[in-house]
Amino acid sequence: MNIKEHNVKSKAYLVINPKSAIPVIITATHAQPPNSDKHTGEITESIAVETGATALIAKVSRIYMDFNRLDLKDDPFKKKLKKIIEMKRKPVLILDIHGKKYGKVELGTANGTTATQDVIGSVKNTMESNGMEVTIDEKFRASHNGTIIKSFGSPNDGINAIQIEFPPELRSKDKFKYTVKVMSSVISNVLMVLKIEK
Ligand SMILES: [Zn+2]
């Protein structure tokens, strides 16, 4: 391995709360510019700080390595995520945070295959009761191979994974704190649905 390659690998991601006992992992695969989903890294980090969940945040731009496209064998981010999942008790919740250009919040579940209906319903209801408009699997279903939720979401094995696309206003300076607060409620409510004591 040459030095350049090593540098890319060691800086491919940032982990927050790596040893957290809370069975929730928040990922931000498109956090790094250029061509980032703006502020998704900061939002993900803040959710982890607020809730104590583990966060995994990309430190390489998708234009070099798209962690929501690559196959596990070529992907340092997914290899790390796999290790984190293995350390957690099941059931576990994975939320992959993204940014879309406009419209409602969109939950991607690869057509209802990556999480149980109870978990998906709890995420949607919590967001809606906090004033967010939410749609499911409309445009961003994340159903192609290589997405985080497709690669790991397997409700029968106790792994629930949902991709969340936030429109720009919910990632803006004005709404940032509100979005983090709603996501903290989402995590609390899903833990209750999964019957996990925090
Ligand atoms: Zn994205």
Overview of the structural elements:
The chain has 198 residues and is an alpha/beta fold. It has one domain (11-193): Aminopeptidase. Helix content is 34%, strand content 19%. The chain is built from six helices and seven strands. The chain has helices at 3-10, 40-51, 76-87, 117-129, 148-152, 176-193, and strands at residues 13-16, 24-28, 54-58, 92-99, 105-108, 134-136, 159-166. The protein has a seven-stranded mixed beta sheet, sandwiched between helices. α2 (40-51) crosses α6. The model is unreliable at 1-9 (pLDDT under 50). Bound molecules: zinc ion.
Number of helices: 6
CA-atom Rg in angstroms: 15 Å
Largest sheet: 7 strands, mixed
Bound molecules: zinc ion
Number of domain modules: 1
Derived structural class: alpha/beta
Strand line-up of the largest beta sheet: 1-3-2-4-7-5-6
Q: What's the level 1 CATH class?
A: Alpha Beta
Q: Which residues form runs of ≥5 with pLDDT under 50? A: 1-9
Described by the principal axes of the CA atoms, the overall outline is: globular
The fold-level CATH name is Aminopeptidase
Element order: H for helix, E for strand: HEEHEHEEHEHEH
Question: Could you tell me the mean pLDDT?
Answer: 94
Instruction: Specify the CATH architecture.
Output: 3-Layer(aba) Sandwich
Number of β-strand runs: 7
